[in-house]
């Protein structure tokens, strides 16, 4: 196992008393994040839910905000923009954009685990504009061109 990357975390006033993001098991890929506020999500509604903290991550990393499968399966709750992207230069509060895709109203209570944070390396690209791209067997085929 490689060394964990260090994420500096600043707790905000409304995050006092909440558990910090943490791995639920030794092999978990994501650190669970809890809501810092109560939220009621009507069917079809969405909300940027406060977490009560801000972070600073290494410049060659991002943190992805991913949904929890239990909430998705049981309640139709997902992260609308999944995977959410936390940029290394973002210093505002981390928020989780939850959406209720189910048919029932769902109540999220402060302290409920609502999403998971997965750090990932970032490759940065340079765009080189060209007149012609190299040929390939696939060419312009896509969107199911290889069959079902
Ligand atoms: O689920 C998310 C997604 C984003 N953010 C914050 C951190 C991220 O660094 C910033 C910008 O996110 P993104 O680039 O996805 O949104 P944008 O619409 O492109 O906004 P911006 O113009 O601020 O980059 O918003 C969150 O707190 N939670
Ligand atoms: Mg952006």
TrEMBL record:
Domain dUTPase-like: 19-147
Protein name: Deoxyuridine 5'-triphosphate nucleotidohydrolase
PANTHER family: DEOXYURIDINE 5'-TRIPHOSPHATE NUCLEOTIDOHYDROLASE (PTHR11241:SF0)
Key words, A-Z: Hydrolase, Magnesium, Metal-binding, Nucleotide metabolism
One GO molecular-function entry: dUTP diphosphatase activity
Species name: Sphingomonas corticis
Metabolic or biological pathway: Pyrimidine metabolism; dUMP biosynthesis; dUMP from dCTP (dUTP route): step 2/2
Presence of the UniProt keyword Metal-binding in the record: yes
UniProt record similarity statement: Belongs to the dUTPase family.
Enzyme Commission numbers on file: 3.6.1.23
Cofactor(s) required for function per UniProt: Mg(2+)
Gene symbol of the encoding locus: dut
